[in-house]
Amino acid sequence: MKKQQLTVSELFLVASTLFGLFFGAGNIIFPVSMGQMAGANMWLAGLGFVLTAIGLPLLGVAAMGVSHSDGVQDMSRHVSKGYSYFFTLALYLTIGPFFAIPRTASVSFEVGLANFMSETHLGFGLWIYSFIFFGLALILALKPGKILDYVGKYLNPAFLIMLAIIFIVAFISPLSAVKDVTPTGEYASAPIFGGLLAGYDTMDALASLAFGIIVVQSVRQLGVDEPKRIGMETVKSGLFALLAMALIYFCLTLLGAQSRGGFAIAENGGIAISQITTHYFGAFGTVLLAIIMFIACLKTAVGLIVACAETFESLSQHKISVKTWTIVSTVIAFLAANIGLNNIIAYSQPVLMLLYPLAIVLILLALFDSYIKDKRLYKWVTIFTFVPAIFDFVKSLPEPVYSWLGGNGWVAVGETIFPFFTYGFGWILPAIIGLIVGLFMTKQK
């Protein structure tokens, strides 16, 4: 039966789906790391983080419903057929075997087993750990059963209870007052921009384009079928999830900022959360957190492997089976995981700086899809956004690739011609110009 809106209980059900899809291990380590660097400016940084880590994914899911798209390839097809293949492939490789899936193993290793190993044995330990981790993931991905649903049913509550206990103990006995922690790097001069870019690292806006159709289908199954109403009900459900996730993000950011009283800035958030847990709860707390993180990350890895395998099979026009893509994705993720969490984060940065602007403009255009009579507008905005995104890509490359490509020259040009390029948002004005040009050109034709 068709209806205009969801009941309160149905809104909470969809909100729970949103939370389960988007909140994972990466959503824990990045706010903690940001808090350590932002220090006294953590509230402004946290605000920026929430906008890109929660606001954009919510809009992405809503855009999927409003535009009546069947997935990211369908939505991006308005730019061009070739672009839709490129963007879909790049997106799934990023949230799949190149970065997000390897990160599930490296994060759970950093939080758990790495604490009990010497520095010289960490490399070998990661190889063994990731081999076992992805071996289990492959078995479950090839023969998914109800075990993951059963585990997930009890895992989220256990995970949140563990986090709540850490928060309560840490906030009762803080290692330092936030106001006494000096911000570092970009968080000293532009904390909101720093937080906005830190939100990119969660990859949730990209994930919303990949998995938003799941949420949209949930709303449709509950009886709401009109595109605009789907978007509205998704946003309303998202507000519940947003409040819960925003609270957790700010608590994690505060946890990181306060930890500076006892620890130096860690190499990554996985190390930071492990140090904090060990400080307050000793080895037992670390082991308990490691077990929960292992199961949570394994569940996430299996879901991503299955989703990527199905998408790659579709992109290959079913010439290569899902089973083959499942094995290939798992092997690539295993190899990528062994470059270590720090390197995974470093090499994912330029890719995110390229893809996020393209994803943002696609989401915003799709939200107003019913008002766009000439779909060539998508192409104009994307072209104008793509150019500065290339400059952001080069700017974020790690050494020695940055030097090999003459990164300093790229940055000098970018700072000259793109406003806000210094802060990582040089694409905004070109995107607006592309919108104006596109409106003019489509009206002329």
From TrEMBL:
Coiled coil: none annotated. The chain crosses the membrane at residues 12-30, 42-62, 83-101, 121-142, 154-172, 192-216, 237-257, 287-312, 324-345, 351-368, 380-397, 417-441. Its main location: membrane. One of its GO terms (molecular function) is L-isoleucine transmembrane transporter activity. It comes from the Bacteria. The lineage of its organism: Bacteria, Bacillati, Bacillota, Bacilli, Lactobacillales. GO terms for cellular component: plasma membrane. Keywords: Amino-acid transport, Cell membrane, Membrane, Transmembrane, Transmembrane helix, Transport. GO terms for biological process: isoleucine transport; L-leucine transport. It is found in: Cell membrane. Component of the transport system for branched-chain amino acids. It is a multi-pass membrane protein. Pfam families: Branch_AA_trans. It comes from Aerococcus suis. Belongs to the branched chain amino acid transporter family. InterPro entries: Brnchd-chn_aa_trnsp_Livcs. This is Branched-chain amino acid transport system carrier protein.
